[in-house]
Amino acid sequence: MDRRYRKAIIAANWKMNINPSEAKKLTTAMLKCSSAKDTSVVLCVPAIDLTIVKRVLRQSRIAVGGQNCHYEDTGAFTGEVSAQMLYDAGAKYVIIGHSERRSMFGETDEIVRKKVAAAIRAGLRPIICVGETEEQREMGITEEQIRIQVKSAVYGLDADDFRKVVFAYEPVWAIGTGKTATPEDANEVCKAIRACLREKYGARPSRGTSILYGGSMNEENAPALLAMPHIDGGLIGGASLKPEAFAAIVAATK
Ligand code: 13P
Asked: Does the predicted TM-score (pTM) go above 0.90?
């Protein structure tokens, strides 16, 4: 990552793991991560855990985030959680457009765009996930796929709002599989994301945007990935449930 322009962000994605009754213990064990200077640490937790996690983190610099939100601010949407609710519960970030949401819950690029706008309206920083499938990579259309996802996610965002945006490049084939993109390949895609953002917002804003890598990132592969110039942090699934591993990844940003 290029420290001159961007702060590192290491974000945990607990996914649908960790009950409220378990959240306090895991969060307490995560407190040691907060000592990392110049690195933002975020725990993106199930909505029902948010209040408990936030309470444990009260005195620390670790932020909390949601994993999804609805694109409307309020209304008759049984079972949904709005961006405003996440914000009110203490969240600073929200993951939007994770590939699990796209593939299993029918989230289209259009829905992702509306959720990004809702997150920003509510005062949250969206962590927008983009990534290609294995087939798309084999067909050689990774960059085309990423460009469509990136451009539609920020469509309609003005320069001010764009400053709040964080991207996460998560190749679908690397998520939860133990397969990681090589640091060089991951860097190439993150660089392409930045180039795409530069076309729309110009050199300075795109240079300042944090672009994370996600997909089987762990304490072993993190140092090499984080050493790449266009990778500014990580979005961590499995390893974020293990405090030691997660702390080691945070430490690798130094
Ligand atoms: P894993 O780290 O378990 O591969 O998950 C990555 C991810 O989906 C983070 O959002």
From this structure: yes
